[in-house]
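Journal club side-thread
Mid-discussion, someone asked how the predicted structure for our own chain would compare to the paper's figures. Pasting it here so we can look after the session.
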Amino acid sequence: MLDYQKTRHWTSPPRFTRPILQGLATYGMACQLLLKTYCDYDPGRLTSIGARLSAPVFPGETLQLDCWESGDEISFQARVVERDVIVLSHGRAEVDVSSYATLPKSN
């Protein structure tokens, strides 16, 4: 677990009865937390990233990013704390660790 963030950017597509967070915003929050934790906010160190949007996020929900390290690869998923639902799955990010001896320890 890295950090909690309240969601902000909402839209209401026709198939949903209430507003949802746009998928790109969910993805962006995950990227921001990875940059903060593993890249010291240096975007040049994040060499690739990918994930699957797996469920909608609704107003007022809190996202939690869970990460697992394996060398220079980070596996991750994002979940909504209140519903215990994974909303971003199969996440993989590659980080350039050449300037660091080891990746920083997450909480």
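Post-session note: The longest strand covers residues 85-95.
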